[in-house]
Every structure is written in structure tokens, then in C-alpha cells.
Amino acid sequence: MHCAQTAFPHAPLSALPAHLLARVGPLLCLFPEAQRSELRALQCAERVCAECCIDADGIRESLRFCDASGSTCLRLFLLPDSDYTVWERIRECLPCVSSDARQGTCERCIEYVRCLGRRLRGQGWVSSLLRIEAGDGGMPAICATHVSGIGREIARRISRAEGVRYGR
Predict the structure, then answer these.
(1) Which of 5, 36, 133, 158 sits most deeply, having the most CB atoms within 10 A of its CB?
(2) Cα–Cα distances in Å, from 77 out to 35, 42, 161?
(3) In terms of C-beta distances under 8 Å and separation of at least 24 residues, what long-range contacts does 36-39 make, across chains too?
(4) Is 136 helix (H, G, I), strand (E, B) or coil?
(5) Tens digit of pLDDT for each residue in 95-143?
């Protein structure tokens, strides 16, 4: 889920090879609506890990960014339009967690209900399609991007599975 997760290993944000992230291409981004932008959410990040989830739709791979309190502040998901080779190089630099190993079905359902409760209280999440580029002074730049029809459909499915409203 996209809620606070502190029970698995994270690497400091400095472990993320930012130059490679800029080469991945199109990604699906999930971030808290309260942050108002992907960049603001990313600026809160202090730690990161790679995740892999297997469900009825197949494999979902993401990078989970957490703030100082351990709460998730942003997630980036691999899409069919992304460069898988570059993504794999990034994943090799970070701890990787399988969501199946982290929580059982009952725990995932409880966490989903908690997330839904936060959403109903106006603490929702939104999704966007983007690519990250190297910006000035080492700060990343977040850009809109073109995504294929199948990429948009996969983004919709991931958003739905994560309980996140698709698009702004």
C-alpha cells in the first residue's frame, strides 16, 4: 500500500543513482495530494528502497521514498515504456523488498482500510505520468511525458490496485 511502512530496509537517498533515474524514461508517480506536486513530495524523501509486488495483474515494481518519520512520501512505478535495463541497474543499488514477504493478506487488508480512511478524511494520494531529468544544481527536474496506450492502461491498473485516484 502507499501508507507508512517502516518494517523493511531502506537505503539513504544518496544510494539512489540519480543520473540513472534520469535515464529510466516514463514512470508512474504516486504522491500525497497534500504535497501538491511530485517535486515537493520528492524533496521530503530521505530514504528509498525498491519494491516488487506480484498480484493478479502480474509484477509491479516501484521505488518507495520515505521521509524522516518513515512515512512514504512518493512512489515511482516501472511502466512498459520505461527502460528496464536502467531500472535494473538502479534496483541493484538498493535494498529490494517483496510485498508478499512483508505482509500477509490480512495485514494488507487492514493497511488498505487504514489508507482508505485517510483518503476519506481528505488525505488522499494522486498519480501522474512523468519522467525525471537532471536539473540545475543537482536538483531533479520532473517533466510530463508521453506514454503509450498500454502504458496508460498499466498506470490505471496500478493506481486502482494502490487505491489512488488516477490522474490529477
Answers:
(1) 158
(2) 18, 14, 12
(3) 37/142, 38/74, 38/128, 38/130, 38/142, 39/140, 39/142
(4) helix
(5) 777 655 344 555 455 445 545 554 544 468 999 999 988 777 666 788 8
